[in-house]
Amino acid sequence: MTRERLAEMVQRGLVTPTGLISHGRGEAYDYLMGECSNDPALNAERAAAAHLLKARNPVVCINGNAAALDAPNLIALAKAVPAKVEVNLFHRTPERMEGIISYLESEGAEEVLGREPDRRIPGLNHDRALCTDEGIFSSDVILVPIEDGDRAEALVSMGKVVISIDLNPLSRTSRKATVSISDEMTRALENIMRFIEELRGDEEAILKILDGYSNTENRRNSIEAICDSLMAEFDEGGS
Q1: Predicted confidence band at 238 (pLDDT cuts at 50, 70, 90)?
Q2: Whole-angstrom Cα distance, residue 69 to residue 107?
Q3: Can you tell me the distance from the alpha carbon of 201 to that of 197, in angstroms, rounded to the nearest whole number?
């Protein structure tokens, strides 16, 4: 169903053909993780919720693949925080920007940013540098599902807390993000929303999570979880 939806979104111009390659690569890692939210993923999702609740100007950044995969939960998360929503694209055209923003609005998003960028992210020489001052540029915490590694690195260099959702714990995005969530996007969004509701108003719990979280350690645990899953399959006689 997901593949069919992505293929349909390519026909509508919301997803680029290269976006299908990106999705297939992520699917492969999901298989390796057993297609479930493992403990390292949940740990990162809990830290993400804590950061979003503490943020001064949180932003949910959306590209074509993310919008196609689960616009309703991206919008629901932004409302739950609450956070601003901004569309940011590598393959950017006025028609594609309008198509994705209109699609998000049809799914219930309000005041989606990105149509009229007025700032640039330093250190990037492509269209993903374009952003708004109200949203991405002035954000302190930014959620970036299915992100390009160079922009994740540039955002961290600006001093932002970058929360990535990327099934590959070895990607440049995962290596550079402040909180690297290696999980399928819908599961990650739903888990983050659940943790937001659990943590809302509990300042002591939020600070404890933020103080105790190590992204390096958690990424290592994600990789170990993949290895354990593979060995369990081998031990069971799988091929």
Answers
A1: low
A2: 13
A3: 9
First and final CA of the chain: distance in angstroms? Answer: 26
Relative orientation angle of helices 203-212 and 185-199, to the nearest 10 degrees? 130
Section 114-123 average pLDDT: 95
pTM, 2 dp: 0.91
CA distance linking residue 196 with residue 182, whole number of Å: 18
Which pair of structure tokens corresponds to residue 8?
């349909």
Instruction: Tell me if 217 sits within 8 A of 180, measured CB to CB.
Output: no
CATH of the structural domain 2-228, one choice from 3.40.50.2300, 3.40.50.12640, 2.60.40.10, 2.160.10.10: 3.40.50.12640
Beta-bridge mates of residue 85: 60
Model confidence band, residue 236 (pLDDT cutoffs 50, 70, 90): low
The encoded tokens of residue 127 equal 């269209």
What is the DSSP secondary-structure string of 182-197?
A: -S-HHHHHHHHHHHHH
